[in-house]
Amino acid sequence: MSAGDLVPRLPPHAEETILAFLRSHALDHGHDGGVVGLSGGIDSALVAHLAAQALGPDRVLGVLLPDPECPASLRRETEAFADALGIERRTLPIGPIEEEFRRLLPEVADRVTRGNTKARIRMIVLYALARERHRVVLGTGNKSELLLGYFTKYGDGGVDVQPIADLYKTEVRALAARRALPAAIRDRPPSAGLWEGQTDEEELGLPYDAIDPILRGLERGLAPEEIARRTGLGAAAIEPILARVVASRHKRRPAPIAAVSERTVGAAWDV
Count of domains in the chain? Predict the structure, then answer.
């Protein structure tokens, strides 16, 4: 195995598998489509694009939830993208809700806490709209983000289904290029949009082109030393990424339950 073997490659069946997945999960048990939060980024744009094909544009609602820092140009571009897909869209600025939260809890001033609150406000809005339309909330997280814990618990991680969560970020880019998503969306630096100037790769310390082979090596069960050798990255670059994966396990698991009965809801009793 060479260094190239650790570079994720988009499986040829990925597109059809995701389309079938969306049809199965968004059009069953009384559901009538999906709701997706549109940020202007590549992940949400790809999910909306796939959902429009799988479910039909009339069964997809795209929701823009801009904060006061969101540039007007990005908002217009995202609205135009939704219109080009032919899906229903709504734009609901969340600034007033954020302001009320700050008024209620003025002592909460930490930037990360406020950013997480913003993500959870968006989740609440998406679920309110989804329930009214008997639809599912479509997640926009990718595999890189999930493994790194680079999402807000019960925020953008609070969804019903995850169409692209088994694709690394670099595979998301490949699929977006295959589906000819607008270059402005594909080339935009990835950001969770939780505060002004935030970018994924600055926070993570490495670009996704370097992060994904590390995660792929971990997926294949390679030791950190072997990952370092195959990627050509030093331990100083790899160790923080691996530490993030371990530290964020709680985000990927259901809340633990104190087992006091014969069959505890969860792994022992999946009713």
Answer: 1
